[in-house]
Design brief:
heterodimer, A: 303 residues, two-stranded parallel sheet, B: 317 residues, six-stranded mixed beta sheet, 11 helices, disordered C terminus
């Protein structure tokens, strides 16, 4: 296998790219600004009677929602033209003149871009941790590392989506349309889609809550951004059931009531297919499934 | 064993046929010049050898292996200079050669190879700043990594100045002496006649001629071509030229008259035209050479086939 050579070349190429460093800086500032704002807020509110301390868990809770938009966006920007870019410019001919199979190219690209995104995210997390030092926020190290790791996996799943579309598309423009469609699907449309499916089933079949509720949650966690969010919540709260039902119900009091109803319908525990390991496997599948599907198309096409 | 064996290969892109029933054999150890005008299907043929595109019909074997199934194994033993490629803008010349070495899993001195192609001074510069000719040299350096058994060079002289083209020929010769088979394409025959053992001429996706360079030279003879610009064409004067000894061919295109003739017949041609009332404004002589034959083959084929030159659109993809 020569995917190592492809990945190494890709990383070497990427670290000379202003894009990568620019996005790392943006990500770092973004992650570090969060703690500072929280700290300022916290000090303002609790200055008179300073009770208990605040840990980085609160920071993670605040940040997780926004990261489900931001990390996928960064990942697809860095990955969508990983292969089509070489195809458009003609470097792919140079690459495939060397003894690399097309699978080597897809695997090497996924690993190379994945490493780049992982490093960018990890740098940003280190910067954010350093930014917490002068604030009253206490670093809960274990949870913080878990949070960082899950964020990396989220990044990798969208690198996978980007590389997969880049392998399958014949121009960067098409790869971009494909990846942006996936991004919009997962960040804006999926929960409505899940609600719609459940409403349809609820209105047209005799399925009861004990079937529909777990089904609703399962459809929700098929979305990598939701899988990530619920895993982070589970990590922070230690309560998988709470973390799963947090995915549905909407905002406000009504949302809270919905979630309570969902928790009751689940009988107070999560089935195996909604457990943390199961959701983690679903998230990890996104890392490899779309690149493999993209490879399958790439292998059959004329360059 | 043949280094390249193409049998009945046809490649269609939609309803455009780029290569049509091509049979081609390149023997181990020879230098084979693959000639044809732009759009004749040369690059499509090379793309099939490298599994960049797959033949619609037919079989393609390289180094005794199927070009599709064993493409990686073939490319492990083949050096390729592709056409219409680009270099990695942000990587230096040396990093490109390092990458080729890592890809072919060979150890070696990248600087020695870069020196061989004349890129020593630019080894540490980013390839994004290279000229077309330098990029061409860099790709050749990558192709030479690992002493390949077969070199496939697609338009290797493109972008090179005459000096660079000469160095390219020297490298081709040296690689052949080392034992490598060399297969390369060109649309300019002058660049290949000096190094080729055999040439094949491709026209509209078909091989229209294949011979040794000596064989082709004999077919050409010692004629040269006189190209005249005249004020007006007089048919009678042309007839008298055609009737002259040593004149084999007279073509007219607007006010340009091309006369293929023996060298010593040129003066007689000129006076025959003047006598017939055709004022010669300007004239030039073209060296006798394979170029003429090449042009004759490709143009004649175009006339006889009479098809539109649709391959031009598909051939270079």
């Amino acid at each position: 296998m020569s995917w190592q050579a492809v990945a190494e070349k890709d990383i070497r190429d990427a670290i000379r790219s202003y894009w990568l460093w620019g996005l790392t800086v943006v990500l770092s500032v973004f992650l570090a600004v969060g703690p500072i704002l929280i700290a300022a807020d916290f000090i303002q509110i609790s200055q008179p009677q300073n009770g208990g301390g605040v840990t980085s868990d609160l920071y993670a809770q605040v940040m997780v929602g926004i990261l489900t938009f931001f990390v996928p966006a960064v990942a697809i920007v860095l990955a969508y033209d990983s292969i089509t870019g070489e195809r458009d410019s003609g470097t792919l001919k140079l690459l495939l003149s060397l003894p690399h199979s097309r699978l080597d190219v897809v695997v090497g690209k996924a690993l190379g871009r994945g490493a780049v995104v992982a490093v960018a995210i990890l740098i940003a997390f280190v910067v954010a941790a350093v930014a917490m030092v002068p604030t009253p926020i206490e670093l809960a190290l274990g949870n913080y590392l878990g949070f960082a790791l899950l964020t990396v996996v989220l990044g990798l799943s969208f690198v996978g989506i980007g590389v997969g579309f880049s392998a399958a598309a014949d121009t960067s423009r098409r790869a971009m349309v494909g990846t942006v469609t996936m991004f919009v699907l997962f960040t804006l449309i999926w929960s409505r889609f899940a609600n719609g499916v459940i409403r349809l089933l609820s209105n047209n079949t005799d399925m009861g809550g004990e079937t529909l509720v777990p089904l609703h949650l399962f459809i929700s966690v098929l979305n990598p951004t939701e899988a990530y969010r619920t895993l982070v919540l589970s990590l922070l709260s230690g309560e998988p059931l709470f973390a799963r039902v947090s995915l549905v119900g909407g905002g406000g009091l009504q949302g809270q009531l919905n979630r309570q109803a969902y928790a009751q319908a689940m009988g107070g525990s999560v089935p195996a297919y909604l457990s943390d390991p199961a959701v983690a496997i679903i998230l990890a599948l996104w890392v490899v499934a779309i690149p493999l599907a993209g490879y399958w198309v790439f292998e059959e096409t004329d360059l | 064993m043949a280094a390249i064996e193409v049998r009945g290969a046809t490649k269609r892109f939609g309803d455009v046929t780029a290569v049509s029933g091509l049979d081609l054999t390149v023997e181990s150890g020879e230098v084979y010049g693959f000639l044809g005008p732009n759009g004749a299907g040369k690059s499509t043929t090379i793309d099939m050898l490298l599994d960049f595109v797959r033949p619609t019909v037919g079989t393609v074997d390289v180094l005794g292996r199927d070009a599709r199934e064993d493409s990686v194994a073939i490319r492990e033993r083949t050096g390729v200079l592709p056409e219409a490629f680009d270099v990695y803008d942000r990587l230096t010349g040396r990093q490109h050669v390092d990458f080729a070495m890592a890809s072919k899993e060979v150890d070696g001195d990248p600087d020695a190879i870069l020196q061989r192609v004349g890129l020593s001074d630019a080894a540490d510069r980013r390839a994004g700043g290279y000229s077309k000719g330098m990029s061409q040299r860099l790709a050749l350096a990558m192709a030479l990594v690992g002493e390949p058994e077969l070199l496939i060079l697609d338009e290797p002289s493109a972008g090179l100045d005459p000096n660079g083209a000469r160095e390219m020929r020297e490298i081709v010769r040296a690689e052949n002496e080392r034992g490598a088979t060399v297969f390369f394409s060109s649309h300019i025959l002058g660049q290949v006649e000096a190094v080729c053992d055999r040439v094949g001429i491709l026209r509209e996706g078909r091989l229209v001629a294949e011979d040794s360079v000596e064989g082709l030279r004999e077919a050409v003879g010692t004629e040269s071509t006189l190209r005249l610009t005249v004020e007006a064409v007089e048919e009678e004067a042309l007839e008298s030229v055609r009737a002259l000894d040593g004149v084999s061919r007279v073509d007219v295109d607007g006010t340009t008259v091309s006369v293929s003739c023996d060298d010593d017949a040129k003066t007689r041609v000129l006076s025959a035209l003047e006598d017939g009332g055709m004022a010669v404004v300007d004239f030039e002589t073209e060296e006798a050479g394979l170029e003429e034959l090449f042009v004759a083959y490709t143009e004649e084929a175009a006339e006889t086939v009479g098809e539109t030159r649709t391959e031009e659109e598909a051939g270079s993809t």
